[in-house]
Each structure stands twice: as C-alpha cells, then as structure tokens.
Amino acid sequence: MVSKNYWLMKSEPSTFSIDDLARSPGQTTYWDGVRNYQARNFMRDMAVGDQVLFYHSNAEPPAIVGIAKVVRTAYPDSTQFDKKDKHYDPASKPSEPRWDMVDIKYVRTFPKPLTLNELRRDPVLKEMILLKKGSRLSVQPVTSSEWKHILHLAED
To answer: 6-150: which CATH number, 3.10.590.10, 3.40.50.1110, 3.40.50.720, 3.50.50.60?
Structure first.
C-alpha cells in the first residue's frame, strides 16, 4: 500500500479562501499560479488522496483553517501561457512547460482556526517548515506526526 503524504498550501483569503473552495463547483479547484521551483516540485510529488492543510496567509491572524485533498496530480498550469494573466511566464513554452498545478477538493473547515502564534507556541511543532525562520513556501510538506498533532489541536 502506498503511504499518504501530507502538505500545507497557503492562500490569501482575499484572493481564495477555504470558503471559496467549499463553494466551488464540486468543492474542487485547480491550484495555479505557483512560481517557485521548490513549491512546484512539491506539487509534482503530490498523489491523489494526499491530504492538505489549508492555510490562510496574509490574514489577521494567519492560520490553518481546514483540510483539502489532492484529487488530480500535477499537470501544466495554463496561466503560464496566458499573456493577460498575472502568472504569465514568457520563457515557458507549451512544449516545455515550467509550471504545474494540481486539483484539490474541500474536505472540511476546522471549528476554530489554528493561528500561527498558537502553532509557534507548541513544542511538538517546533520543526515544522511553516514555523522555520524565513520559510515562505506556498506549498510545503507536513510530516505524519505534525499532521496528527494538528488534527488533535483542531478538535480541542
């Protein structure tokens, strides 16, 4: 049996919130516009069924607000070819796309957001990538133990 992986994906709620995901057709959307190679590579590592912590960044307060799951693996991000899109990349060619996206589906919203400050105060999460100084990746892996602990915190 293939083991499930866990991820954290950041979105500014003013651009796309977990509520927007919940209201999307089929409660599903594509995750486009990622323009960081490391984050892109993490998306390329995602498998159908992988679980995602949905994080509201640039929010007051920034927080993990719920869960989504991967329902389609990485495929070329169409915005890289659209000259009118803010994510257009003139160096990317349809024959050799640089950027990918995945599809995710809403699972649930936490009863209360887990704020960045709460997460920072938790010694169990001290090694979490999200909490590392200078960590700005919009897509990042989460360990199985971090995932389980966050779910426990979300239920308290």
So the answer is: 3.10.590.10
